[in-house]
Amino acid sequence: MEMQTKLNLPRIRRVSFERFSLFKLMPSIDISMPEGVFCLAGANGLGKSTFLTAVGYGITGIAPNPRVNFKSAEEYYEDCLDYGKQFFNGRISEDDRDISTITVELQIKDQIFEVTRGMFEPNELRMFTVRRLDNGEIIFNGEDISPRERQGVYETRLVQAIGLANFKQYVFLHHFVLNFDERRELLLWNQTTLLNAIFLAIGIDSEKAQQADWIRRDRDDHASYGRNYRWQSTLLAREIDGIRKKINVTEAEESYKELRERYQNLLKNRSKLENELNTKRNGLKDAELERMEYGSKLTSLQTEFSEIFAQKFQSRHKIELHPIVKNSIADSICEICGSISAEVTTNVESKLKAGICPLCGRKIEENPVNGDEIEALKEVDLKISEVKKNLDTINKTRKRLIAELSSIEEQLNITNEQISNLETENQEHLRTTVGTTEDLSGLIEQKTKEMLNLQKKSEEQYRLRDDKQSELITLYDELRQRYTEAQVQFVPLFRDLSKLFIGMDMDIRMEYSTALDSTGLQLIIEMQGIARRQTHQLSESQKFFLDIALRMALARYMSDPEAKACLFIDTPEGSLDIAYESRAGEMFARFAENGHDILMTANINSSQLLKKMALRCGKSKMVLHRMTSWAELSSVQQEEEQLFNEAYEVIENLLESADSNA
What we know:
By secondary structure, the protein is an alpha/beta fold. Helix content is 58%, strand content 13%.
């Protein structure tokens, strides 16, 4: 059998955010990422996990939806396509929504792919170029095509450069093999995702991986149709036994498949629209509550301003600072009656100049001015301006949500009408009413024929299912042979990495099944000769880091030596004790020493994981990037900020000492 062509996997070289509101103190950030380990270190709640998700979104246009179960690469892509908008909603402010972007530079061998994506634009790119690494020569510039066309060209060029069959396969690899994020998806204990990963990493080729995906879906569809036909024939058998007066036969015509698919798609779309409607309504409720809260604050502050003004200031100069007078002069609009005219400004200013109150006409007495009282008035006025600004943002959010609600309600009404029409037409087409004088024997004969027809259709669907199963087994036999050849290299990679972490000999063996409910390969972990088939047979930290070891082994095996994979790791360090922290650091460092990149996050503390990595990698192979200056710390974190500084200093010193001792 011919050797599989290795994949040219992209490595991150630069990430740039513009107006990424979550990072309130630094919403615009530009970071270069050299070879080796890039560790984004910070405190809890600052957005480390969001950073990793955002980078992946910039590359793929997809944010992983934790509620979506993987069935196939194509279905996963479609089910997650719109989730990014939901994920970033709230993380990006209303004012930044249309201008917030991420730019990512990817290196694939001797080429640099640079993409810029709006944070709410999953299938569009604002910019896409390809240039040579050595001299910067532009190979492709997408400035003259539309944003959606740019995305299409980007997908085509990316998968060609990597060596995959389609972009959806790369999305799968990024989300389930090259990325260990806050979802904590475990490859080792999910046969469907693991099988797809083995096909792409160790299998025959990406085209056959795609073919297996399609065959598996067809097989499952035929099995579903077979069950449905069989169930309908069972219902008819019951009708025959009961000699009912009314007969309801569903989906018994040749159009059953097309009709059912259309109906199910409409129901699925309705459910999706209803969920979106509820989300938008909840968002609007939240906006209304915020609007009421800030409205109350504004009223309270204006009252406070008026009271200070009334108690402390009577002179003409201070009356000029009163909001009613100040706004009337500035806007030429009477704040009392609403009259709009340049004469408003002239009349108010002339009365002030004459020392007369513009409202009551009383002579204004000049009183001595107290500096502290003026400052108090300015402070309240500043608070009023801030509250008005917040109210303006909330009103923008309300306006957008109301428009989106209206659009969704219109779509939902159309969908409900389509469902209603389809149900009515289906009933008219399939329902028969039995007359009271109808010959029961004739009825039984009629229903028996229908039942036999359904049984025949069921058998045909099961035959087609078995044909697809045979095709699938043929592909899986090839995959099993490929894995048998590959395990000579792949298994030692896993053993080496896993032993670094767990400190004992580990093994991973293949099991192969042709059963319908578990067709394909499964990798079984063995610890000291005992199989660990269930997740509860290992501790949380063992599960997480052994799964990371598997991803590292797959990445090392499938990568071309000149385009080694980069892993994205949202470090689950909270599950480790101090001894295993150090071992996890050894495992991460070994992966980097073999020429791979790691883009990781970690809490900044006295973690042995970061210390061990710093000692092994040094500054030449590891960059520690502080993110405590990106977003606001909590009051507790601010009080203990010195502890963060000390922890950073310890790790930075270890990085420097590692280089000096090299």
